[in-house]
Specification:
Elements: H1 2-16, H2 37-56, H3 63-92, H4 98-105, H5 123-141, H6 149-162, H7 166-187, E1 195-196, H8 198-211, H9 213-222, H10 240-251, H11 258-278, H12 287-301, E2 307-308, H13 316-320, H14 322-340, H15 346-396
Antiparallel strand pairs: 1-2
Helix pairs in contact: 1-2, 1-14, 2-5, 2-7, 2-10, 3-14, 3-15, 6-7, 8-10, 8-11, 8-12, 10-11, 14-15
Length: about 400
């Protein structure tokens, strides 16, 4: 799942930022239907919360476990992030702001300053770090508030409509998805059968994206939604039910209230389509609405059709390099597009550019994720283990 989401974000950026002059070509319109990059980022937060939960909530919080947790998170995120940041800086050199440079090294982009234009995805790492730092509090008290986790999630959702700061609102939106993943890790019980209606849920995700259901309903209630700088907004909450369904299907997990979640996921776009029909907006519809209605109908029609999700194990390699692909794809495309467009044009630019971009991105992701990062992790965890052993020895002598 991580791999599919990461590559979807990467491909979407190639076109939306017109790298290699891709917008000069009329690609089949149906390809745009497969763009769910924004929902993919939300899925990353959901997945992150789940992974943190299953790896840590079953063990007690102690100084040793907290230290190991922080080291693992730092080793997992920072080395590859630092390489991506250096690539981004190299693309903009010598036009760099020193204060922005300092801020990026400490994950302040997307919070106190903008992400570098040579790597617009870096904002999500700042949000991720915030959730990692908050998690130990939930780790400490999760047994005492286990029965109130739904209430805590509901309060987090409510907080979005209370705060007026767009950046804080965006952080809270991401936190809702991250916390939902954490909640799934706590509620998981027995595994569900490998045959799941993944196609139906995926079509529903594409339908909500095409219809822009979240923005439509949010604007209907609050009249106007700001289209400012923040990457996330309260209207993204409409993706939560379908992202949850898709995620539960892929990991083959049963949780309570799954049927309720499914109905909520369907009701959102169904309500929007009803309003569009009732107020006769479909007499002069937007293209996205028509595509969304077709996708929604297909989603309902295929709800009984199930596929074996174990087939997705074939894409396991993509998941292993997804973090590096997510961070590297933009600065590599940024540099190659700028450099190659000086010497090439037309189809040659597209072919050479995409070929070079694909090879460099995949090779660099493979080397950093599967070669460099494991060695760094082994070094720091071994060092931490030696330090703890030495401390215990001193206490017992």
């Amino acid at each position: 799942m991580r791999g599919i989401c990461a590559f979807n974000v990467a491909i979407a950026h190639l076109y939306s930022f017109n790298f290699f002059n891709l917008k000069n070509y009329d690609f089949p319109r149906w390809l745009s239907v497969l763009d769910f990059a924004h929902a993919a980022v939300l899925m990353f937060f959901l997945l992150s919360g789940y992974v943190i939960g299953i790896n840590h909530l079953d063990i007690p919080l102690s100084v040793k476990n907290l230290k190991t947790y922080l080291i693992k998170r730092l080793v997992r995120i920072y080395p590859i992030y630092l390489i991506a940041l250096l690539l981004s800086i190299a693309c903009l050199y010598p036009y760099l702001n020193k204060s922005e440079l300092f801020g990026h090294f400490f994950f302040l982009q997307g919070i106190l300053l903008k992400s570098y234009s040579s790597n617009v995805v870096l904002w999500s790492l700042s949000y991720e770090v915030i959730y990692y730092l908050i998690f130990p509090i939930l780790w400490l008290i999760h047994n005492r508030i286990r029965n109130y986790m739904f209430s805590l999630l509901a309060f987090t959702i409510l907080a979005q409509f209370i705060t007026k700061d767009p950046t804080l609102n965006a952080i809270i939106t991401g936190a809702v998805f991250w916390q939902a993943g954490l909640l799934i890790s706590m509620l998981r019980s027995q595994q569900s059968p490998p045959e799941q209606p993944v196609i139906s849920y995926f079509l529903l995700l594409l339908a909500i994206t095409s219809l822009d259901t979240g923005r439509f309903i949010y604007d209907l209630i609050i009249k106007h939604l700001s289209t400012g700088e923040p990457q996330l907004a309260p209207n993204d909450l409409l993706f939560l039910p379908v992202c949850t369904l898709l995620f539960l299907s892929i990991i083959q997990q049963k949780i309570r209230f799954k049927n309720i979640i499914q109905w909520i996921a369907i009701i959102g776009p169904a309500f929007q389509i009803f309003l569009l029909y009732h107020f006769k907006h479909l007499e002069n519809p937007k293209t996205g609405w028509l595509v969304g209605i077709v996708l929604f109908a297909l989603s309902l029609a295929t709800i009984a059709y199930k596929i074996d999700v174990r087939k997705f194990l074939k894409f396991e390699f993509a998941g292993k390099i997804s973090y590096a692909v997510y961070l590297f794809h933009f600065p590599i495309a940024f540099y190659l597009s700028d450099m190659l467009s000086k010497y090439l044009s037309g189809f040659v630019l597209v072919f050479v550019g995409l070929t070079a971009w694909s090879c460099i991105t995949l090779v660099s992701a493979f080397l950093t994720e599967l070669k460099l990062q494991p060695r760094i992790k082994e070094y720091f965890l071994r060092k931490d283990s030696i330090a703890i052993t030495s401390s215990i020895t001193k206490q017992t002598t």
